[in-house]
Amino acid sequence: MKRSAVDIILRKAQPEDIELLNYWDQQEHNIFADPNDKWDWEIELGRNPDWRMQLMAELNGRPIGFIQIIDPYKEESHYWGEVEKNFRAIDIWIGEAKDIGKGYGTVMMQKAIDICFSNKTVEAILIDPLTINTRAIRFYQRFGFEFVEYRKFGDDECSVYRLERSKWESIKAFLI
Ligand SMILES: CC(C)(COP(=O)(O)OP(=O)(O)OC[C@H]1O[C@@H](n2cnc3c(N)ncnc32)[C@H](O)[C@@H]1OP(=O)(O)O)[C@@H](O)C(=O)NCCC(=O)NCCS
Predict the structure, then answer these.
(1) What gap in Å lies between CA 132 and CA 32, rounded to an integer?
(2) Per-residue pLDDT tens over the stretch 47-56
(3) What domains does the chain contain, in order, with CATH numbers?
(4) Pocket around ligand 1 at a 6 A CB cut-off
(5) What is the whole-number distance in angstroms between the Cα of residue 29 and the centre of ligand 1?
(6) Domain N-acetyltransferase, which positions (predicted)?
């Protein structure tokens, strides 16, 4: 499928999405990618902190995936520890296995990166896939994310990658 033909929009996640998000959390591919996080949708979708966007991706009106964008400097739990101002961090997943590998994640990620860099003060984006999630790492590398360090977050052995604004601007045209 041509990516430009894929009609995916990102919209704000709502309390009405809780059931679906809980269902997606139980899917094997998402447990593999994120075995230890508790997303607490019932609480979190009722809050709107200024350091976070929680977005549902819809394909022709059908929810297919989720994206979270945070400002890691302002994020309350300081998950990222010492981090510079003017960064963003992204989490992304496709809800159901049948929707994986069809190019949807690529469109979602492009849109999320554009949202981040539409704020002119944002210099770079961070991601922290599990080191064993080599397919996701390959996915991120296609957008220009570059390896920073191995890092343990709680029980998770992660690989931190970072995408510079300048790198995205040079790579973007080749992706679309
Ligand atoms: C990572 C993910 C968002 C990519 O979205 P997608 O729509 O499947 O990806 P696309 O079809 O646009 O691109 C295909 C690429 O995605 C990656 N990918 C495919 N299946 C994957 C899977 N089950 N898990 C992780 N990455 C996968 C691969 O890099 C693939 O390229 P390849 O075919 O050359 O191996 C999606 O696969 C997913 O939600 N995976 C499970 C959760 C996850 O790993 N999230 C990231 C956590 S850091």
Answers:
(1) 9
(2) 999 999 999 9
(3) 3-175 (3.40.630.30)
(4) 29-30, 33, 92-94, 100-106, 129, 133, 135-136, 138-139
(5) 9
(6) 8-168
